Amino acid sequence: MSSPEQRLDLHSFSKPASQANIESPLILVVEDNEDNLLLMSEVLLALDCSFITTKEGRAALFMAQHYQPKLILLDILLPDIHGVEVVRSLKQNPQTMKIPVVAVTALARTEDREGLLFAGCNDYISKPYVIDELEALIDRYLN
Question: The pTM is what?
């Protein structure tokens, strides 16, 4: 079996060096749906954020520890492990426990939201989301 770093489906997006904010905060986006990832990428580029992405929870755990992002935007229904397991692992690891995690998920019931917050997510936004609400949420955790 390959190690998490060998299985990374890692994409790094940012503006060209001449346009990028050198001090731009790094965000880890964990999303397995290409359309959702594209939309999230456009939002983050518009906010002048640097970000890295993965489609898998195990890779997200490795990347969070290795890259120490300022924020994690986490889809909950991932192909390898459930997002709740990801956030619990992040919050139990001294190296990642203080990184804010925002659940970005289609799970929209009140009990889903409460369960995700109880598991360790700092916040929650349901899909489909309003872009202005996502931007405000990101801004709240980065500033």
Answer: 0.85
Phi-psi label, residue 63: left if phi above 0, alpha if psi -120 to 50, beta otherwise: alpha
Q: Are 8 and 59 in contact (CB under 8 A)?
A: yes
For residue 16, the Cα-to-chain-centroid distance in whole angstroms is: 22
Structure tokens at 130: 């309003």
| Cβ neighbours, 10 Å, residue 24 | 17
Neighbours of 17 (CB within 10 A): 7
Question: Residues 51, 14: contact at Cβ < 8 Å?
Answer: yes
Torsion of CA 128, 117, 46, 53, to 10 degrees: -90
Question: Cα–chain-centroid distance for residue 105?
Answer: 11
Cβ neighbour number for residue 38 with a 10 Å cutoff: 11
Residue 16 structure tokens:
């060209």
Q: Per residue in 106-134, pLDDT tens?
A: 877 788 889 899 999 999 998 888 899 99
CA dist 129 and 136 (Å) reads 12
